[in-house]
Hints:
Elements: E1 12-16, E2 27-33, H1 39-48, E3 52-54, E4 58-64, H2 66-71, H3 73-109
Antiparallel strand pairs: 1-2, 2-4, 3-4
Helix pairs in contact: 1-3
Amino acid sequence: MPLTHRHPGLSITELAVDPAHVGRTTYPVRLRLSRRLAPHETEALEALLSDATVEQQSILLDETCLEDVAREIETWNRAVERAERIAEERSGADVRHVTEASDQVLKEHRGRGTTPESYMH
């Protein structure tokens, strides 16, 4: 049984604005995501998008406008895809680290007797 949980693909599903802000030159735009972010995805997006606020299921861009975000949607999609790949790599590294540590413990204790004294140092 694999130790990792495969999340369904992450994507931008909607661009949302507060209608009260649209009359301004710039305003916050929210990029809603297809699902909640895993912790590694949040970390990766925060690193990639230093000028944005990463939330549980969205990315908030301050002081922009809907037209600019829509025009650059492919760039935003690539950033989300890249963050997902980075998160998968980090998650895999974590699993490998746990597996290696477990293997090392088993190796160190292999061949010891089954009495409690054999495990005392």
